[in-house]
Amino acid sequence: MNFINKLFGDQNKKHLKKIQPIVEQINSLESEFEQLSNEALQAKTQEFKERLKNGATLDDILPEAFATVREASKRTTGMRHFDVQLIGGYALHTGKIAEMRTGEGKTLVATLPTYLNALEGKGVHVVTVNDYLAKRDATWMAQIYDFLGLTVGIVQNQRVSYLYDASFKGGQEGEPLDEERDQLGSFKVEDEFLRPCSRQEAYRADITYGTNNEFGFDYLRDNMVQDITEMVMRPGSEMHYAIIDEIDSILIDEARTPLIISAPAEQATDQYYQFARLVKQLDEKTDYNVDEKMRSATLTEQGIGKFEQWLGVDNLYVQGGIRMLHHIEQALKAEVLFKRDKEYVVDNGEIVIIDEFTGRKMPGRRYSEGLHQAIEAKEGVEIQRESQTLATITFQNLFRMYDKLSGMTGTAKTEEEEFFKIYGLEVLVVPTNRPDQRKDNPDRIYRTEKAKFAAVVEKIKECQKKGQPILVGTISVEKNEELSLHLTAEGIQHETLNAKNHEREGEIIAQAGRPGAVTLATNMAGRGVDIKLGGVPVNPEEQQKVLAAGGLFVLGTERHESRRIDNQLRGRSARQGDPGETQFFVSTEDDLMRVFAGDRLKAVMTRLNVPENMPIEQPMISKMLESAQKKVEGFHFDSRKHVLQYDDVLNRHRNVIYKKRRQILELAAKQEGKLAPEMQLVLPEEGEKQYGTLKEVLLDNIEQEIEFVVSFHTTKVEETVESESGEEKSTGWNMKEIVETVKTIFPLQPSEMETLMTMGKEGESKLDDVQARHEIVEYLLTIARREYEKVEEQVKGAVQGNEEEAKKLQSAVEKNVLLRSYDALWVEHLISVDYLRTGIGLRGYGQRDPLVEYKKEAYHLFNELLANIQKEVVYTFYKVSVGIQLAPTIMAEDKMVLQGAKKSEAESNSTPPKPRTESGDKIGRNDPCYCGATKEDGVPKKYKHCHGRQ
User: Which of 198, 233, 291, 299 could form a disulfide linkage to 303, CB 3.0–4.6 angstroms apart?
Assistant: First the structure.
């Protein structure tokens, strides 16, 4: 890297040089803006918005906007942005990562680009690592935004949301509470200024603070709603601009764990066995139609009638829903198309698929879409229950969807290659406001862990004696508590910070700079809160005492796998030019040392009779440890890159399905008068089909399905059959099969069947064949449209001819048929892709690249999904009656389980905030549960008997 810098010059310095004139321009405006009254300064927001409407760009107004924020901050919080903070703000605005040392005021830096980009009116998301920081940063910085006329929303877990309101419960400017907040705002959250609101209100605010998990879950849930008005994010600009605080934690540490919304797979065991028994009683031709060439089996009207009779329902499509019908069809498929010892074998009570090409067993692979369970029921073996993934996304793909992304952290340079390759983000190292005075001592290496802990205790005593505060970092809660016991035994007063007392995190860390303070913390704890020498509020006498003692001493008790985590710990010391010291105490028994040559080093120390309590301070060994850390970091980068390559495949599928689903919701909302007809939330791509109504979508699906059926059965068949006269002749088009298949879609009159049979004559040329096929398709489409109109007449009849109501009901029927098909089959597709992903690694043994194989197989699965959705829509629409409540969709929220990325230690044992209703009222123990769950008799469950138990 040094050689490259010599050759091309330091790129970081070049970027900083380019930004300097802009900083000078902002500074030149300061005296002018200081002269403005509060009203004149507040009026700047509207002025900027008008200029943007008239064609100005964000870059054009950047110097003035930054100067406005700086002045507003001075008047509301008493903090003035330093030049280096202006540089950091510019880096964030231009979509870069600003690496700024701990204590340089990153929270304040974010106000600059957040205000500027919020002026566009498309919303800005500020992403933090936990709910506490989201709440703290929002209430602290909202004083600036609120003064300038922008609204601030906060989203928390348990669907809790707030809007910042300075007047809520008496938090007026100038009151004692407001003055106290400026002093303690760096770690204390004042709930008095947070007005509970609905999730939608929080997202409609100009600026929204929240955690990575909450933004991810809300995105997924928005793509599961049944009505566009239920979406909480801004439709059309939900992913405009995001600033990620602690970006390395979110985009690297948590990147390998996807967000998952799942539900327990329905306990349909009895249903599978019941359907397996019933399909055995059906007769081919009368009750169902088998097409071996297409490998499909579909029920006829008589077959559906039999099932309705057996199950005691009036309309299987409405009362049972698509899911039940889907299971019946899978049971039929399992019975008539899948033969034992041909497609599968029963091995030790399990159904094992046989590879049709090699004839070998494929243990671990399962048929998708409930077919495997249907075969298990047919053979009478135990049905394996699974949980269903309703929606999933990785953080990599979630944040790559934003139009503009930026972030800030104290440690990004060591991971800059990953940031650029995966997210296209450059890292800009921002210089410190004051010269760095931190002294990093070489590692001390001890022979045993016991000797190391004894040395740590001695070091703490030494610091305490001279009034120097010390922060001791441990890599786990277990080591944190073990060291705490050592200190207690020695009678040393100390504060312990780990997941078990996280609620005092901000307070403990804020006071860690008091003279002689001893704070034991896990490595990541306290991130986001400054350690000010002398404590908070600052006591000048105590501050001078700490400065004289050498500032904060940071002692690491073990090296972490990642250099970044070690650097974060070091960074707690020497903020804003304060003095400070850091050192790591390690032993040959530590995990990282043991894996990388710790045993050899221990053997050498034993052979040389090095006493247990004598440390080695050897720069060469410290370098060896850093080299080991680099190797581990490289391994983890490859691992995350590998996960992303696989997820990119599913991400393309997800984007297509979510876009189609959103189009359905948009069309339905326009038909029902919930959206203006000219509003365009989903922008079509070039060459993409445009639809004006849901009827057009359905008819297009019907047309494509009819074309497929006709084209499939009008290809030349090479085999021959024996005629009545005993002669053999070539068979032509299979019109009988076309008639049988179409009858399962919509009813045909006897005369129409006869007409179709006469149309199936091959022409003398290929052109004649094309013409004949076109005539068959057009004839069938005429019938399809006529039957569609009958459904519409039926709807009108159900509402006694009320035109407005009829339109709404027709729209609801069309929307529900489309959504239920997309939702049910998308969930099955996720399961299929998951099974494929699990077993694809074995292809490597056959000298084939598993990733290439995965892409090929997933492509076929996706095409199959689109074909199945089309088929499900077409075969369902004509059979759904109206006026009866449709069965709930698979996306119903009452059974949802949200699995996010691994929480930080501060959050993992947290008591979740009490849930609230969408209007923001707290839910009482005896109120109906917010999830909407009901008892068997339909009475809503009380909160204390449902989610309150958890």
Answer: 299
CB 520 within 8 A of CB 495: yes
- The residues, ordered by sequence, that sit 6+ positions from 655 with a Cβ below 8 Å of its Cβ are none
Sign for the CA dihedral angle at 132, 137, 140, 145 comes to negative
For residue 693, the SS3 value is coil
pTM above the 0.85 mark?
no
The secondary structure of residue 168, as a DSSP letter, is: G
Burial group, residue 124, by CB count within 10 angstroms (0-12, 13-18, 19+): buried
Question: Is the CA virtual torsion 740, 741, 747, 751 positive or negative?
Answer: negative
d(CA 699, CA 786): 11
Pair 881, 795: CB distance under 8 Å: no
Tokens of 744: 């399962």
d(CA 705, CA 728): 33
Residue with tokens 């001819």: 801
The CA distances from residue 885 to 263, 406, 792, in Å, are 23, 47, 17
Q: Which residues contact 773 (CB under 8 A, 6 or more apart)?
A: 710, 711, 714
Q: How far apart are CA 768 and CA 762, in angstroms?
A: 8
For residue 153, the surrounding DSSP H or E stretch is strand 152-155
Give the chain's radius of gyration (CA, Å): 34
Parallel/antiparallel/unpaired status of strands 552-556 and 470-474: parallel
β-pairing, 518-522 vs 552-556, is unpaired
d(CA 299, CA 308): 12
**Cα 751 → chain centroid:** 55
pLDDT 10s digits, 587-619: 888 877 777 665 667 777 777 777 777 887 777
10 Å Cβ neighbour count for 734? 18
Sheet architecture: strand order including 161-164: 194-196, 161-164, 152-155, 207-211, 124-128, 241-245, 404-409, 97-99, 427-429
Burial of 608: CB neighbours in 10 Å, binned 0-12, 13-18, 19+ = exposed
- Structure letter (DSSP) for residue 629: H
Mean pLDDT for all residues in the chain: 82
3-state class of 281 per DSSP? coil
Cα end-to-end distance, the chain, whole Å: 53
Q: How far is CA 851 from the centre of its chain?
A: 23
Asked if pLDDT for residue 65 goes beyond 90, the answer is yes
**Beta carbons of 509 and 519 less than 8 angstroms apart:** yes
> Which tokens belong to 829?
């597709």
Residue environment code for 83-111, b if the CB has 16+ CB neighbours within 10 A, otherwise e: bbbbbbbbbbbbbbbbbbbbbbbbbbbbb
Banded pLDDT at 222 (limits 50, 70, 90): very high
Residue 907's pLDDT is 39
Mean of pLDDT values over 101-129: 93
Indicate the angle between helix axes 619-671 and 850-877, nearest 10 degrees.
Answer: 20
